[in-house]
C-alpha cells in the first residue's frame, strides 16, 4: 500500500540502485547473449535453432509475459519457460535447457559499467550505505561490483518485484534505515520512481537518454540526473541540508 504521509526530507543515510540501464547499458549485452545462446542451440539442440529464430524466441517470451505477468519478478524463469516450450515443440531433450540457461546467464553478466559509475560508487561508499534492488538477473559477484554494495536484493529471490513497495521497504530494512532516510535511483519511471516513492523513499530518475517521458507520465521524481556526476552534485546538496 502507498504511504499517505512522508516525513520531511532529511539528509539521506542510504542510497539504493536499480542495475540494468542505470549502472550499465543492458540492451547490447542481452543481444550478444541471445546470439551466443542461439549459436549454442545450433550445436547442442539443432532442431530448436532451426525452428526458432532469436526473434521468434523473443516473441514467444513476450506472449508468455502477457499471459503470466508474475514473470516480471523472475525474468530468467521466463526465459527458461520459453525454452522449455521451444524444446518441446522441436522434439529436443529438455534436459539441455538448464545448460542453455547457464550459457545465457554467463553472457548476460558480461556488462560494462558506464564510465561514471565506479568513481561515483567509491564516493558514495564513503558517505552513505549503498544497496541495490533489481528485477533483473545481474550477479554483482560475477560482474565484480559486489564490494560496493552492503546489500543486494533480487526480485527473483525476494518473491515480489518492483514496483511493489515491499521490496523497497525490505531494502531499507536490510540497511537499517527508514524509507524517508533513503534514496532510490533507477532508469524506469514506473518500476523505479513510482515504486520507490510509494514506499516513502525519495526517487531519482537516472535519465541517461534525455527523455522527457515523466511529463507525459505525470511522474514527479525528486531529482532527474543524466549521469552520476549530476547525481553526486544532487546528493552533496542533500547531505549538506
Structure description:
With 241 residues, the protein is α/β, with parallel strands linked by helices. The chain is built from 12 helices and 6 strands. It has a 6-stranded parallel β-sheet with strand order 3-2-1-4-5-6, with helices on both faces. Helix 11 (213-217) links the parallel strand 5 and strand 6. Helix 4 (75-90) packs across helix 5 (97-108). The protein starts with 13 loop residues before the first strand and ends with a helix. The model has no long low-confidence stretch (mean pLDDT 94).
Write the layout of secondary structure elements.
Layout: E1 14-17, H1 27-44, H2 46-51, H3 54-67, H4 75-90, H5 97-108, H6 117-125, E2 129-134, H7 140-143, E3 151-154, H8 155-158, H9 165-175, E4 182-186, H10 189-198, E5 202-206, H11 213-217, E6 223-225, H12 228-239
Parallel strand pairs: 1-2, 1-4, 2-3, 4-5, 5-6
Helix pairs in contact: 1-5, 3-4, 4-5
Key phrases:
alpha/beta; elongated; 11% strand; single chain; 6 strands; 241 residues; 12 helices
Number of strands: 6
- The first-to-last residue Cα distance is 29 Å
**What is the CA-atom radius of gyration, in angstroms?**
19 Å
* Strand adjacency order, main sheet: 3-2-1-4-5-6
* Parts with pLDDT < 50 across at least 5 consecutive residues: none
Oligomer: single chain
Order of helices and strands: EHHHHHHEHEHHEHEHEH
Average predicted local confidence, pLDDT: 94
Helix content: 40-55%
Helix/strand structural class: alpha/beta
Output the number of helix runs.
12
Globular, elongated, flat, extended or rod-shaped: what is the shape? Answer: elongated
Provide the β-strand percentage band. Answer: 5-15%
Give a quick account of the main beta sheet: strands, pairing sense, barrel closure: 6 strands, parallel
Amino acid at each position: 500500500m502507498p504511504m499517505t504521509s512522508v516525513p520531511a526530507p532529511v539528509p539521506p543515510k542510504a542510497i539504493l540502485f536499480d542495475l540494468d540501464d542505470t549502472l550499465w547499458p543492458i540492451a547490447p549485452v542481452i543481444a550478444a547473449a541471445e546470439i551466443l545462446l542461439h549459436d549454442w542451440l545450433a550445436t547442442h539442440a539443432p532442431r530448436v535453432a532451426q525452428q526458432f529464430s532469436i526473434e521468434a524466441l523473443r516473441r514467444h517470451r513476450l506472449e508468455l509475459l502477457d499471459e503470466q505477468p508474475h514473470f516480471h519478478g523472475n525474468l530468467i524463469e521466463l526465459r527458461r519457460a520459453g525454452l522449455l516450450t521451444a524444446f518441446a515443440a522441436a522434439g529436443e531433450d529438455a534436459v539441455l535447457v538448464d545448460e542453455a540457461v547457464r550459457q545465457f546467464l554467463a553472457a548476460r553478466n558480461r556488462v560494462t559499467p558506464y564510465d561514471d559509475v565506479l568513481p561515483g560508487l567509491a564516493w558514495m561508499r564513503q558517505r552513505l550505505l549503498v544497496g541495490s534492488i533489481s528485477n533483473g538477473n545481474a550477479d554483482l559477484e560475477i560482474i565484480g561490483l559486489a564490494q560496493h554494495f552492503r546489500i543486494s536484493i533480487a526480485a527473483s529471490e525476494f518473491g515480489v518485484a518492483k514496483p511493489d513497495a515491499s521490496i523497497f521497504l525490505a531494502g531499507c530494512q536490510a540497511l537499517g534505515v527508514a524509507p524517508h532516510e533513503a534514496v532510490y535511483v533507477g532508469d524506469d519511471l514506473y518500476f523505479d520512481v513510482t515504486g520507490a516513492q510509494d514506499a516513502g523513499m525519495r526517487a531519482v530518475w537516472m535519465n541517461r537518454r534525455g527523455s522527457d517521458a515523466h511529463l507525459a507520465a505525470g511522474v514527479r521524481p525528486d531529482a532527474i540526473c543524466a549521469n552520476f556526476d549530476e547525481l553526486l552534485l544532487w546528493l552533496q546538496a542533500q547531505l549538506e541540508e
